[in-house]
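Tutorial, part two.
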Amino acid sequence: MRESIPAGEPIPNSVGGRLAWSHWVGLLWKDWRLLTVGTPALAMVVLYGLLMLAILSVSVEPGSRAAREWAGPLLWVVFWFTGQVLMAQSFEHERIRSGYTVVLAGLPSPAAFFWSKVLANFLAIAGVHAFVLVMFTVFFDWSWQGRLGRFLLVWLSAILGYVLVGHVLGALLMETRQRGLLFPLALFPILLGTFMVAGRATVLVFQDYPSQALILPLGLLWLGNLLNLIVVLLVAPRAFTDA
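Running the prediction step on this input gives:
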């Protein structure tokens, strides 16, 4: 009979208690499959993104000043919803089946379980957002010349914090009874400021402001990411202990 491995003990093929690359790849592949195979979440966010962009393209004349002013913030509304739906599914499979206890028992550190979730969701969100941007370009006949690099910098600054904070909060709420309701309600006020700044920075990019105009918004985004993490780590455990 195969001998069980106590929680916290190094698993075979780990090096000095650290997870081997093959196990990292296996964890990442497992989390990627849970997000993209056999779940309606991915199809739902893609369809929602297409619907929102189609409505916006009819409401706002492509290439107009109104499009440059409103397309950025509305694009971030689409980004928010698609990311939130995907992150809400992160721990759902293991929570329903209590499978996370089995996974953690075979890992040298719970951090591997967490970071695998973060990376898998970041890649999934990046893929969905890339699809949204392609459709945005088609619907609005948008030119990214001189804008794409600066926009991706804004996107990365906001989404990194979004995914990390969302997963810390999701892990804290994993065992709560009302997790499906509490997760979006808690995530919204914590990250509202981040998305407002990202929307404003996107307007500056779309209106062809010089790159120096992005220094303040980018600084605020990274400061906000740090403050958001502090809020989640300090406040959330106490707020949801009895949830």
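The two ends are 40 Å apart (CA to CA). In part three we will examine how such features are distributed along the chain.
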